[in-house]
Amino acid sequence: MNINIRKATLEDIPFMLSLIKELAIYERAPLEVTTTIESMLKDGFAFHPVYHAHVAEADEKIVGIAVYYVGYSTWKGKMVYLDDLIVTEPMRRYGIGKKLFDAVGKFSKEIGANQLRWHVLDWNTPAIEFYKKLDASLDPTWITCKLTRDQLEKMF
Questions:
Q1: Whose CA is closest to 1, among 56, 67, 54?
Q2: Which residues, including other chains, have CB under 8 Å from residue 121's CB and lie 6 or more apart?
Q3: Annotation: CATH topology of 3-120
Q4: Which residues lie closer than 8 Å to 114 by C-beta, 6 or more apart?
Q5: Residue 77 CA: distances (Å) to CA of 48, 83, 113
Q6: Which residues form the catalytic set?
Q7: Are 35 and 17 in contact (CB under 8 A)?
Q8: CA atoms lying within 13 Å on the CB side of residue 139
Q9: Adjacent-strand bridge partners of 62
Q10: Strand, coil or helix: what is 29?
């Protein structure tokens, strides 16, 4: 099987959104995805894109994605945040996730990032084991906090 990793294009957005929805089902939150093709086009391919993405192709079909963005840590400086690394379920265990992760790692190195950061659900054992193989630090002391759009509207 020939796996090709490349930067995402506009034409990839529908396939990317399909994988995002597949992940949401796996993570037991299928109704939480509010992203649309239009918002992904605007946010990723406008004059100032807010995210970057790589896709993995097998036999010219998209089977995985990595979506990430550049951020800033007051303690560490420039960092890359890997928002999602998704490989469609039937294509897992072929090294596709590692190839996508490597593409994000190379991007991080190229821009001089001091850190590559991401989250993983505490029950997602396959992902946790994958990250442990990469010698990643899994820090249980930090709690993810967030405000939803509705909360932002009410508060501000």
A1: 56
A2: 27, 127
A3: Aminopeptidase (3.40.630)
A4: 73, 76, 77, 78, 79
A5: 20, 18, 8
A6: 131
A7: yes
A8: 8
A9: 57
A10: coil
Query: Phi first, then psi: what are they for 63, rounded to 5°?
Result: -125, 0
Strand order, beta sheet including 3-7 = 3-7, 52-58, 61-73, 77-87, 115-118
pLDDT of residue 154: 96
Contact 83, 119 (CB under 8 A): no
> Do 16 and 8 touch, CB atoms closer than 8 A?
yes
CA distance 21 to 44: 18
The residue with tokens 């004059």 is: 47
From first CA to last CA, the distance across the chain in angstroms is 51
- Each residue of 18-77: pLDDT tens digit? 999 999 999 999 999 999 999 999 999 999 999 999 999 999 999 999 999 999 999 999
Report if pTM > 0.85.
Answer: yes
Angle between helices 13-26 and 37-45 (to 10 degrees): 120
Query: What is the rounded (10 degree) CA torsion for 86, 40, 108, 114?
Result: -110
- The residue assigned the tokens 């998704």 is 86
Q: How many CB atoms lie within 10 A of CB 56?
A: 27
